[in-house]
DNA sequence: ATGAAAGCGCTAACAT
DNA sequence: ATGTTAGCGCTTTCAT
């Protein structure tokens, strides 16, 4: 009880103790731990043995204090829990990030920022100096978070083109415009002439760009582009939008939805209304997620290389961290169209 | 360039500078920052002003070094990315955890441990002294991670009863047995007499207990309990299991699946085989997730209070952190049956 | 190749 | 109520 350690990390051996055990100085142990080459084989072994014997693990706080690095990067997702854990998009991204970061000694840590309160916490966490950099994803409109982090001198990379392009922050995005264009054009080519779209949120570039792609395709084909209903990428919004569209025009024969979830919702509503997919109405989604594979009929969908996007994000961030003055340009990755049975 | 700061956190004002600016000592500033009451109103104001003026933010590394606390707790999910971001179960849990932790000054950080490599990283991270405690979820079989963390003197709480109950670690779980029993009994009461089950992984208590519940219900009703096929909670495994079951016995008229995802897979296979749900075969799932609400017909499912489970996990962990010697007992929360159209 | 020593920025115990 | 001081455990010059 009165022993020298009531504190949590008590008893943990220190550099000092390892040094004593190995009969060398602190500095030498430090060199061994950090893989310096300027250590003789003999001492190297002695120190290693001592480390092993004592079960020494470097104290990060002490190390951070002097190096100013934390070897941790933060993934901030600006969505509510339900969204984050419902959208398969994030899975690929996280995997991609993890893969790439595994090559470095950076550890990935994830935090949600779906509410103001959470955003504030994330900001404080980052400003406290607990991370070397941050990847932000799913930013809406004029989220102040990226700006605040940059102001706090924290390297930041974004997922998805920021709406206000003045930001100048490096970002990675899928070619949403081309993807949407290809999807819409596909509907046209299989014979649809009354093609509607269900958009994503218009405060995100992904939402805006996919709508633009739809428009571009139809303008090129000289089709009408008026059948637009807005959604928020979520399933329920897709159902709502589809109902609205059907009410406005019941001759619709093709639908391009800006997310698989919305497309799935639309398919359900179409069925409720007695429309067969794809015979009466063809449907294309966006994301090529699990959802698309599991609708009935299986859904044709635009694929984005989420995993590669994660890879690129990691690379960009590492670059920013290692060369704070570099401003790597944006990375735009190509999308594809995966043909299944719904269109 | 030769200025005193090329390092990342360079130029950040320190306690010392704030003290100078406010004309007081370091100690006093520290007291203000940490909310000590023993400070006169005057100096309090002076210090606050100085902090404001200089934009001072305490350096966490320095603070951690002396306090031995990080104010961070880790949520470790022992699943692959695809799983984590596909199962809505996690959303509720994370939300519950966040809610409760928001009352404290603990920050939640999430890490995946789906591969050995990731598990190793997580272990190192925790042993490095970067977290005050950890919540582990989705443990399989004899995962060594919890033991290692405990050995490293890190407070740990588990989600789901550990299979080897000798561990003695505090945990939170849903009453899986009762839930499964209620689901199965419901099938019996609506007239099913050939009731099959699709189990979860048998290296997790949730899988084992739900199967036990199925058995208990049928034994009580004197029904046969032989129609068992194994799955892993995932959709594909549900499809596989359903096919297998139909091959073995095509008079099956009720199915209890240990997860919504598997139940959804089963429903699809049933439809493929020309069985109508619930008319020919009634189906009950487990989780009461979004998936259950979106099948056609909507799925009857066992609900677990995931959010409350998250709350309780946080409470347990906080207790463990604040009183390292306390060993709070397990918390088992009740499940319910949500009636929809599939049974 | 190695040791010695000067901090990194903060908290907390002790004085006053 | 406030100042003083001794570290927390580590990295990193600077000598040798």
Biggest β-sheet description of chain A: 6 strands, parallel
Q: Can you give the mean pLDDT of chain A?
A: 90
Q: In which range does the helix fraction of chain A lie?
A: 40-55%
Using only CA atoms, what is the Rg of chain A?
Answer: 26 Å
Count up the domains of chain A: 3
Distance between the termini of chain A: 72 Å
Query: Which consecutive residue ranges of chain A, at least 5 long each, have pLDDT under 50?
Result: 1-9
**Cross-sheet strand order for the largest sheet of chain A:** 2-1-3-4-5-11
Find the biggest chain interface: A-B, 57 and 56 residues
Instruction: Quickly count the helices of chain A.
Output: 14
Tell the overall outline of chain A.
elongated
DSSP strand tally of chain A: 12
Overall CATH architecture of the largest domain in chain A: 3-Layer(aba) Sandwich
Order of helices and strands of chain A: HHHHEHHEHEHEEHEHEHEHEHEHEE
CATH level 4 superfamily of the largest domain in chain A: Response regulator
Please give the oligomerization state of what you see.
homodimer
List the keywords:
homodimer; 343 residues; alpha/beta; 434 Repressor (Amino-terminal Domain); Rossmann fold; 3 domains; six-stranded mixed β-sheet; 14 helices; 45% helix; DNA-binding
């Amino acid at each position: 009880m009165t022993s020298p350690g009531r504190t949590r990390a008590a008893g943990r051996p220190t550099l000092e103790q390892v040094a004593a055990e190995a009969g060398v100085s602190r500095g030498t142990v430090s060199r061994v731990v950090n893989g310096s080459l300027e250590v003789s084989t003999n001492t190297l072994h002695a120190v290693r043995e001592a480390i092993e014997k004592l079960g020494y693990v470097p104290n990060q706080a002490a190390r951070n204090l002097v190096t100013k690095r934390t070897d941790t990067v933060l993934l901030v997702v600006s969505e509510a829990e339900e969204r984050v854990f419902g959208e398969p998009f994030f899975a690929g991204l996280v995997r991609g990030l993890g893969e790439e970061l595994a090559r470095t000694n950076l550890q990935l840590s994830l935090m949600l920022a779906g509410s103001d309160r959470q955003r504030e916490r994330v900001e404080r966490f980052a400003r406290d100096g607990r991370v070397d950099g941050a990847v932000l994803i799913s930013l809406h409109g004029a989220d102040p978070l990226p700006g605040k982090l940059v102001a706090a001198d924290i390297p930041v990379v974004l997922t998805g083109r920021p709406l206000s392009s003045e930001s100048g922050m490096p970002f990675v995005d899928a070619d949403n415009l081309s993807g949407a264009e290809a999807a819409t054009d596909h509907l046209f080519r299989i014979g649809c002439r009354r093609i509607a779209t269900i958009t994503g949120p218009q405060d995100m570039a992904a939402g805006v760009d996919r709508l633009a792609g739809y428009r571009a395709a139809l303008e090129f084909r000289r089709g009408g582009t008026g059948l637009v209903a807005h959604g928020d990428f979520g399933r329920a919004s897709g159902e709502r939008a589809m109902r609205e569209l059907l009410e406005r025009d019941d001759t619709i024969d093709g639908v391009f939805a800006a997310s698989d979830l919305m497309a799935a919702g639309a398919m359900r509503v179409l069925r409720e209304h007695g429309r067969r997919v794809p015979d009466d109405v063809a449907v294309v989604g966006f994301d090529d997620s699990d959802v698309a594979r599991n609708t009935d009929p299986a859904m044709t969908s635009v694929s984005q290389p989420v995993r590669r996007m994660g890879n690129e994000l990691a690379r960009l961030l590492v670059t920013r961290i290692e060369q704070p003055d570099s401003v790597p340009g944006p990375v735009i990755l190509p999308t594809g169209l995966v043909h299944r049975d719904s269109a």
